[in-house]
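Write out a sequence, fold above all:
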Amino acid sequence: MAFRRDRYLTDEETEEIINSDAFCNAVSDDQDHIDITVCPPEVDCTTDEEEGPDDVTGTVEVSDVPGAIELHFVASENNEETVCKTSLPSTSQVSRSKAKKRRLTDEKSNWKKIPPVYTMLSQTIEHDINTKRKELKEQLSSLTLKEIFEELMNENIYEFIMKETVRYAVNVKNMQDFIFTVEEVKVFVRFLLFAGYHKLPAEKLHWSEDEDVGIPIIKTAMSRNKYQKLKKWIHFQDNDLANENKHNCGFKIRPLLKMINESFQKFGIFEENLSIDKLIVKYYGRSGLKQFIRGKPIRFGYKLWSLCGANGYCFKFDLYCGKDPEDTARDDLLLGSRVVLSMLNCIEKPENHCVYFDNFFTSRDLLIHLRNLGFRATGTVRGNQVGDCPLLSSNELKKTVRGNYDYQRMRNGEVLFVRWHDNRCVTIGTKFDKVEPLGAAMWYSRQASKKTQVQQPAVLKSYNAYMGGVDHHDWLVGKYATVIRGIKWYRVLFTRVLEMALVNAWLFYRLVHGKNALDLLDFRLAVTVTYPKLGTGGPIIGRPMEYPSSQLRVIPDIRFDGIGHMIDKRSTQRR
């Protein structure tokens, strides 16, 4: 069957539209960045393949952006987020959507420059958080490193991957004699994690007979042909359900993401301070879900919305697939508000948590709505999203001494807005924090040629301390990220899920053992080597290899597994 291939905008044509006078006039002067996304196409084809070589590790250059393009920015009129769409090059002016978004609250503003008093604020029940952390330590204290990791990557997930992969191989590829076990899934997963810290130019070199590249532990655990079959046929969804999920663009990977989210939340939300932000999973292949964000360190990739604790533990994440036709209750809200409410629906007791997010999500209406739900929330605000709040303008505040600030409190809504003069003027909104006591922030003065201190409102100090949870989790995942490519567009999402589970498991381990805990690399080594050493293949052919003394140490998971340690009596006596 032949599928029609539309011609979409190239990078150069997209840049021409963004730099046009019509588009520049439509964007607000306070807009600091523009989100450029590629809209996902309808799921009318069940192909899993992408273009490009399969065996190459690393990244591949991309020359164009396939798919219709969305430009998300704040318009200069009506203070509303606007979406511009185009599929083909056009010489006409950029059109703007006139559909108004529903407001989360109808409360009118009544601003006064007075210290905030929060009458509707619930007190944090620290006992609940401490109890959860204590119970978590007790449950994990007796587990080995492998068992801690398998608390998140549990048997149900491995069995699910095995079942769907066998279904795909038998029904689609007609491989009736294909055999795939749960143990082989575990070895396959460990090989992907192994490739994160042991990188080679091509994955087939792991099975090479050359001494400088061949890895005996990998060759013993699984044959190269078996690995390539699993990599080619691994599946997480039944293709027969494609017609029922035409509008679910992430339908191929969605069941796995759901199971992983449930696993991450099995011990509850045990962190008081939470942050919501986006993650970009690097991807240069062809996929309608791939996003392009100009000016970011990773410009091409999949976008994940994430809810993380201050220590970096990821409690919930979701793949951005564009507009969700099934979420009709929040369809008319701004994208930032929809994401925040979706991320927070897993929290049972809102009064136990403080939530932080950046200016992509924050608005006055969202802060008031979260107050009504019981959450304590703080977020930076774009300059034109403060509504009618009579703060000093950024231009006026820039003329004052660095460290000066202005604030206004909404009396009926109990929302506080603060604008502070730093390297640039920063506006922040909160419904539970205060301006005082003032803290101190370090700033390098060029005139004095030394670091000096400037005053900083308390709400900004708290925001800087607890907002970085998502970025910290992303940094930990990226330290030893797997770089093996695959012909399936969702392969990079699968490896990303494994990396996130490993980082979460290490944070569990560090919570239990404190200062005596291994670092992330040593923890990864111990977890990864376990299953390749157990192996699924037959005996080694040829002379036994001589290992250095450091490799003779047996890790506890193998030493105490009770397999293959029987003492045999010899017929003759030996000295």
Remarks:
- Confidence is low (pLDDT under 50) at residues 1-6, 42-46, 77-98, 537-552.
- The chain is about 30% helix and 15% strand.
- Residues 402 and 421 are 5 Å apart (CA to CA).
